[in-house]
Design goal:
alpha/beta, five-stranded mixed sheet, 11 helices, elongated
């Protein structure tokens, strides 16, 4: 098994381009550092360094190994720091990505309350509906709304709150066009659809007869739920939207629920992060805080 001490010595030699400089940084003699690297090369069975009297540089194999080792040592340092912080107040920056509508309408006040409770935490909140790669885009966590069982298995996930979706329309629209009773009736109506919906121009509804798919006539596409809500309020047609977006409009009778005996496949708002961040005190505290904050969501109270 490779010794971390040898790996650390090797990375310092590459970083400082020499054994003596690496030794000074590590507080060890040049000969000790050289011995550690030689042991590492022997165990790997490959030469990691080109050695001359003037300089030391990595071989091709050494360069590739160095890049992996730097990441490994960084993960170990991060894990050690996370363990140390588990019993202390969280500090530092937390980079969060979240969907636009959920973020502006409901998440932002929760984040503000979280920061008030933990004043040493700085938050960088980015709201966007595009699918992001946590590592490549530089985020610590992302909040997503989807089917939890379809999440990338390389990420850790924890549910925050269930998300209910409904069909709704303006009272004036329903008075003019009639109120559909079964999924097939939707074919005679104008519909408003989220632009990124994977099922295209079909809605899958679950009712007394089980799950049914119905092809709809879409009058208005948008990639933002609030835009679709506003269109529905203006009488453009029937919208399929999360209750957290339309709850307030339903409460003031600007919208009415359509076909209440039919529902959509369930979604979940959840937090996702890389396994390397599982021990982060900031992330665990944020997860617990959001689960408590959304235990009884305000949009459900409107029903």
């Amino acid at each position: 098994m490779l010794k971390l001490e040898s790996i650390h010595a090797f990375t310092e030699v590459v970083k400082h381009s020499g054994f003596a400089a690496a030794g000074r940084h590590l507080g060890q003699s040049r000969s000790v550092v050289n011995k550690l690297v030689l042991q590492l090369e022997a165990e790997l069975g490959v030469q990691l360094l080109h050695r001359t009297t003037r300089r030391v540089s990595p071989t091709d194999a050494g360069r590739a190994f160095y890049e992996r080792c730097v990441n490994i040592l960084a993960d170990i340092a991060e894990a050690e720091l996370a363990i140390a912080q588990l019993h202390t107040e969280p500090k530092g920056t937390l980079r969060i990505n979240a969907p636009m509508s959920f973020g502006t309408m409901h998440l932002s006040p929760a984040i503000a309350a979280f920061m008030a409770q933990y004043p040493d935490v700085q938050v960088q909140l980015t709201l966007s509906d595009r699918f992001i790669n946590l590592r490549e885009d530089g985020f610590d966590v992302t909040i997503r709304i989807a089917q939890l069982d379809q999440e990338d298995e390389s990420l850790m996930t924890q549910a925050i709150t269930p998300i209910r979706r409904i069909l709704c329309a303006a009272p004036d629209y329903l008075n003019q066009r009639g109120c559909p009773q079964v999924p097939g009736d939707l074919r005679e109506h104008d519909c408003l659809q989220y632009g990124y919906l994977a099922t295209g121009s079909q809605w899958r509804l679950i009712g007394p007869e089980g799950q049914q798919s119905v092809k709809i006539h879409c009058r208005y596409y948008a990639n933002n739920g609030e835009a679709l809500r506003d269109g529905a309020i203006q009488g453009l047609g029937i919208a399929l939207l999360p209750l957290f977006i339309v709850g307030e409009a339903l409460q003031r009778n600007a919208l009415k629920i359509v076909m209440p005996n039919y529902c959509l496949p369930p979604l979940t708002a959840y937090i996702a992060y890389p396994p390397s961040r599982h021990l982060s005190a900031k992330i665990q505290l944020l997860t617990t805080f959001l689960q408590d904050w959304f235990k009884q969501p305000s949009w459900e109270e409107s029903q």
